[in-house]
Amino acid sequence: MGFERFVDHLAHEKRASPLTVEAYTRDLRQFVGFLEANTGVSDLDKASGKEVRRWVMTLMENDVGARSVNRKLSALRAYYRFARVIGTVEVDPTAMVDPPKTPKRLPEYVDMPRMAALFEQVEWPAGAEGERDKLILEMLYGTGIRLAEILGVRPLDLDLQRGTMRVLGKRNKERILPLSNTLVDQIRCYLSVREAPMSGIAGEAPLLLDGRGEPLTRRRVQRLVQHYLGTVTTQRKRSPHVLRHTFATHLLEQGADLNAVKELLGHAGLAATQVYTHNTVEKLRKAHQQAHPRGGGPSKERPTNEKQEP
Fold this sequence. Notes:
The protein is mainly alpha-helical. It has 13 helices and three strands.
């Protein structure tokens, strides 16, 4: 069946992440369920453009956000591209379906004073737990690493003498990231008190372990980041990805080259990196509005050299 072949192609040939495979599979199954309920047919290859449009309209009528609808539509488009290649369909039913418009949303980030407060004022737990928690925040902010990437880092991926770290990113693409002296020192502090892994070779085990020597879970890291960022900011989004946004935004604010930031983040193209320039432009816009006489900000009483009439 084309569905199973597509999932296998996505996982092994395209080398998509497990989360992407899971999301695409879920979205395709949802469309299959819609087809069964409305046409009695459960074969993706027999769907028409009319049914795809009805599905999109149904999702939006049920208050599914435009971004979520577009993601589901992307899953369908990917499937039908594959189906045309293997010859199970001749016409792509998504070809004439327009995606719903989504409002532009700037990446959320934490400003520099609050990040400074995080590392200078927060009281970390004693022992291995505190050294590990601080390292997680230092690594996420200091390298722009993704959550999945930080969970995959092993001690053997670190070259503390040269101050570099090897990271395996999306589609198994490897990149080498520089480590600051502060981050190198924090890694050494953590390794000196790190719990030994319960199984496997020490260098092969993940760098980040819990108190029993087991690898940290995604959810545990997310909760730790949310907790510690909550001590310095009240913003709603406080996730590992917010720290990735913060890393990129702060680099660009300090004049870093856009191509260099692209390589550090592991982006395939500049378009994904350019979104962070909008934050810096928006910051300049606000400064202009507040300070320039014709910037549109609150009016200021202007000094005058003219003498007032008595």
